[in-house]
Amino acid sequence: MKVLIVDDQYDQKIEEIIAQLKKQEITDIHHVMYTREAYQKMLSCEYDLVLLDLHIREDIGEEISTDAGSALLELIFTDDAVIRPKFTVGITSHEESYQENIDIFQKFGVTLHLFNSEPNFIDNILNIANRPSSGVKEYDVAIITALRHIEFDALLRNGSDWKELLTDDCNKYYTTTFVDKQNVERSIIATFCPKMGMPVASAVTMKVLNKFSPKLLVMTGIAAGVEGKVNLGDILAAELVWDWGSGKLEGNESESYLHADPDPIKMNPSLAIELRDISENRQYVDQIKYKWCGNSPDTQLSMHVGAVASGSSVLADYLSVDNIKKQKRSVIGVEMEAYGVLTAVSLVGKKPPETLILKSVCDFANPHKNDDWQKYAAYTSTSMAFEVISKHIDFS
Question: 50 has which bridge partners?
């Protein structure tokens, strides 16, 4: 087993860790004192375990930085040139640093350990590092929804034989298979976000990408539609997504206003063309509505391909939607996670998967909004997602 310790000191903590490693008959131990040196080593060497301190210098002669360890962690997961270690653990003896950095470690699915000279520290780390993966592997498709209630429940009720996958992770994962358009059995991993919003969606997405390396990433769920352009239950395929709250907020004592400065992310053009064909030919939508067992809106079910805005707030007023329409006149819907998902995909480092955002309209983000059509909308987005991945994606 090859171990890299990244710590700017050779102190009692490092002596204890090395002693514990040697008790496990691990002698191929490298110790570096700067993150730049660690980075150089990981360009040419694959380590089984990296122990990464938070308080460290980037290079010789520089000051100790409280975020250098986190910066190196980001490089490990986003730089294609790095040979990613099989297992990474962050370590710190400082409670304050632990609290400041825990979110970024959780974003990449990496343990950050508050070290207190525990005699069994290395034993516990090695037990986790050497534990069988319990089915963790590369998957053809990863599906992420927002909250478990409504959206993920719709996924588990779609008729597939879902099984829970046990992993060393705070997220819950479920797996199933389907047959693609070339009659090849493909695998799916699915999970949900513990909270609404772009930051959590981005963190969960990055973890899924690094853990399971899917060829296709799909997000399903519910959204608000732009009244007059779409109907309740309609499926929104996001061809372009932006953060409608991005920009500079200015104002005075009586009012404030946003100078919007969005940075939109677009869908793969060939996938967008395929979805437009599905939409224009009204494929699947009639049978999806027919199979629904509950109440459904009186309007015809359709799929729309277009611009969807993401934001950090639940909207229930006319003015906010009007302001979003000023940013992008062609907007068809508003939701809270898609931009975070797409941002994570763009930063994953290795070859990013194709990404498909399919959300269905449950309300129009006005004062009359209610929860009446959430289950129906979650059902229509999930149903369309499975039609697309099984009949229109070339996984080869």
Answer: 4, 88
Model pTM? 0.69
Distance in angstroms (rounded) separating the CA atoms of residues 216 and 178: 14
Domain count, the chain: 2
Same domain, 48 and 147: no
* 235 and 320 fall within a common domain: yes
Residue for token digits 């199933």?
176
Q: Give the range of the structural domain holding residue 334, as residue numbers without chain letter.
A: 141-391
Contacts of 116 (CB under 8 A, 6+ apart): 93
Q: Looking at 88-97, 234-243, 386-395, which range is the least confident one?
A: 88-97
Domain boundary among 129, 149, 174: 129
Residue with tokens 């979650």: 378
**If DSSP codes are grouped into helix, strand and coil, which group holds residue 269?**
helix
Both tokens of 261, joined, read: 């400065």
The SS3 assignment for 264 reads: coil
Answer yes or no: is 291 within a domain: yes
pLDDT in tens, 18-66: 888 888 888 899 999 999 999 999 999 999 999 998 888 999 888 888 8
Which of 167, 154, 213 lies closest to 187, judged by CA? 213
- Nearest Cα neighbor of 312 from 328, 303, 330, 324 is 324
32, 115, 207, 333 from 338: Cα distances, Å: 39, 37, 16, 11
Burial class (CB in 10 A: 0-12, 13-18, 19+), 297: middle
DSSP secondary structure of 337-392: SHHHHHHHHHTS-SPPPEEEEEEEEEE-SSTT--STTHHHHHHHHHHHHHHHHHHT
